[in-house]
Amino acid sequence: MFKFTGKILSLTAAALMVSTAVSSAQNLDELIAAAKAEGTLTTVALPHSWCNYGEVISSFKEKYGIEVNELNPDAGSADEIEAIKANKGNTGPQAPDVIDVGYAFGPSAKAEGLTQPYKVSTWDTIPNEVKDPEGHWYGDYYGVLAFMVNTDIVKNVPKDWSDLLKPEYANSVALSGNPLGDNQAILAVQAAGLAAGAASGAPAAEAGLKYFAELNKAGNFVPVTARTGTLAQGATPIVVYWDYNALSGKDELKDNPPVEVVVPASGVIAGVYVQAISAYAPHPNAAKLWMEHLYSDEGQLLWLKGYCHPIRFNDLAKNGKIPQDLLDKMPPAAAYEKAVFPTLEEQAAAKEVISKDWSGVVGANVQ
Fold it and tell me: Which GO BP annotation is one of this protein's (predicted)?
């Protein structure tokens, strides 16, 4: 088991100023009333297939009767931050209320004054290592990077990063984002560096850039933002993807084409994503209620249903709240034994190297 090492409202003033931590049923009722009065929640970068977000969103709408305005589902973490910056004075439909971003983006967004604090009622069950003490951001789920392989096209399924350099994988390997700003892609570069024997952080970033330069020079790298659809079409037969995206994509395709999901033998890197509320959220109470939904037992199990390890996984397991059928659908525990969880400092150092040197070292413009 993983262990961490991180509309104007006509309401009363009390309802408008809901506490930063919901500590009682009465306070929760006040929050629900305030959120319903706002009537809308605006999200960004939440594909329905990612961590079962489709069901997470629909259950929120059904439970509270609040509309969800979904912006740019395929955006990356950097795009989410820019969406807040670009809409600071905008209370219209293009201003996101909440963001779900890579671990390193949480502290940086707080430092730039882009988030506001809120502690959910289950705050104490979120590990301290992955939450801001003031409540500006907190971990939501995690997974490991894996290879999603279209076995209609790729007959010899790669088992490790070094395999991807073989001539048989020409024009086959793609990332699920642009390493200049997408958290998943940035961590993929680091994972390749770890597989080459480099230490986590800047060394892994440097080694990972050299690896992708070699992969590109060999003609194996496909410089497009890959998804389950591009894999199924044969444009990107091998996609470096979060395990939960790959597994949910496999379910979605229903063996058309057949897919194999492989956690590599080395360079297994785990990534924690975090939630935050925009400092400029047009619907702050709906945003807080959204957080309550996500961090409730119900919300956490909906993420697990989408193959994501929810951040409260240990607490739920300890209290016997995880159905066995959900556990049985996950990869075996042994697949995660070598997983490396980079610290915030290591991620920040690696991100700086990769964003600065990707174009010059790798020479591939991911579209």
Answer: thiamine transport
Q: Encode pLDDT of 140-188 as tens digits.
A: 999 999 999 999 999 999 999 999 999 999 999 999 999 998 989 999 9
> What is the domain count for the chain?
2
| DSSP SS3 for 289 | helix
Q: List the domain range (segments joined by +) for residue 201.
A: 151-269+339-362
Residues 160 and 258 in one domain: yes
Strands 173-175 and 138-150: what pairing?
Answer: unpaired
Q: How many H-runs (helices) and E-runs (strands) does the chain carry?
A: 14, 10
Alpha-carbon distance of 27 to 54, in angstroms, equals 28
Minimal CA–CA distance to 298: which of 40, 76, 55, 70? 55
Domain check: are 134 and 18 in the same one? yes
CA–CA distance from 180 to each of 103, 183, 353, 357, 366 (Å)?
16, 9, 10, 9, 9
Token pair recorded at residue 92: 């219209």
